[in-house]
From TrEMBL:
Compositional bias of kind Low complexity: 33-54
Residue ranges the record marks as coiled coil: none
Spans annotated as Disordered: 27-70
Signal peptide span: 1-25
Name this polypeptide is given: Extracellular solute-binding protein
Gene3D superfamilies: Periplasmic binding protein-like II (3.40.190.10)
Keyword list, A-Z: Signal
Organism, scientific name: Cohnella silvisoli
Amino acid sequence: MVVKKWKQLALVMLVLALVTVTACSKDNNGEKASNSPSDSPSANASASSSSTTAKQTVPDGPTGKYDPPIELTTVRSVNAGVKFQAGDSLDSNVWTKDFESVLGIKVINKWKVSDQQYQNKMAVTMASGDLPDFMLVDAQQFQILVQAGTIADLTDVYAKYASELTKKSIEEGGGLRLKASTVNGKIMGIPADGGGRDDAHSIYIRTDWLKNVGLEPPKTMDDVIKIATAFTKNDPDKNGKNDTYGLSLDMSLFNGWSGLEGFFNGYHAYPFNPTKGTGTNLNFVKGADGKAAWADVQPEVKTALGKLQELFKAGAIYPEFSVIDGIKSGELVTSNKVGMAFGAFWVPTWPINNMKKDLPGSDWGIYPIVSADDKPVMAQSTGGLPSKYYVVSKESKHPEAPFILLNRYVDKLFSNFDQAYHSVDADGVNYAFHMYPPINGSFAEKNQDAAYAVQDAINSKDPSKLDTEQKQYYDQVEKYRAGDLSLWAAEKLWAPGGSFDVIGQYKKENRIFQSVFTGNPTPTMVAKGPSLRDEEVRTFTSIIMGAKPLDYFDEWVTKWMDSGGKDILDEVNSSGQIQ
């Protein structure tokens, strides 16, 4: 019944999307938008490869050339910030010319719209049934296309035509990207993002304040509480005033800056539902019955909320946190008011990047999250699941061709770096060549690998093995150590003891938690996720601030189950995508 309901809801969502987009497809004067398929010069191009002949030569593996050339259709979003040199466009540039000359693939854009319009335009295309050979879709559209049976099963194509480098890029980081692209044992898409685990939190602590209050870096969550309290009550800035706070927090609750993920993780809790998020990017844990359970309603979350309530009552959290955003919480920290925060690897680049230079005597240490007991602590990551996929039409005559394109892109950018088409600056304009291709890939562990390489070079005092990018980071660290305080962030990113050093420890010790549900948002998540998210935000905020008693958490859990939570769990557990 759940699966049947899912399919029905998918159809309903598609129809609703079509109605919404059709209403928005006219400009302010009610005229037809000029970017419809019929207005495109390529509108009459075949929706599938059209230049085949009886003597067509097709690559027999990841590399090779089509002879005669084929035409492969797609659709594109246009980022307003992407600039083109004279004569270049998304239709014709260094990459499209390379694909045509080296691979024998002429890519034709059936339509192009701004990135703000792309999702709606794609909904119209999906509803029309006139799909290009391949296209980029979001997670919800991916699910709808899978249910509709209009995209190709790429399982065998992936095995034969994806190069080893392409497979490595898709399967790194525990293989979560590939799992998310696989439905009922079939690879149905090529993940366009995801795979990363660098969003796992570290603890950022003012080391000069630690010294001033006579404490050491934390080894347990009790130590975290003790430090936060001391930073509030023991005048850590030595100005003789009671004007500091121990723990940074703002209205987002979950975020790469001033988020609570790392704090919750210390109590073996893994909630995630940002205030400004979609309400569909959720964490699930495996229950005792082997089924998926929503992480946010587990008893460990209640325990952590109780500790946050205690900190708030002690004055260790800014009293107006519920109405300030990340910008404001960052300002509080950089104005010498807060001494500790949980956050992602990039925190040294903002907001604390200039404090060493601007506030003499100040400095920050970066530490791994710690456990409330003797059980190993897991740092949660929510960056592994893709939010976008490249999919191939079931009608395409060459479902392998997108992989041939992707192989070429990945090889040029990540294997033959010096021969790749990089961004160039000319006449004061940056031309981002890497954003031109109709398909692209990346390595989610690229930054981590660079950090390892830089750390090895620092320890050995030998940078000779570094590539161009890694050497740049190494040089920045050396300049900082020579006295250039403006490069403090480089030291805290790439050097031993930096954020990537901490995250690397999690990875090496297999201490990163990822949701057991590898699928895309279910119908009920999409329909009710935002309202359920808002109720969770109100509940958690009220409990932390003491406006609601801690036991209100149990009442909220019951309300969540009755308001759509049970349906979400049923859909998740019937999805076939529980790892």
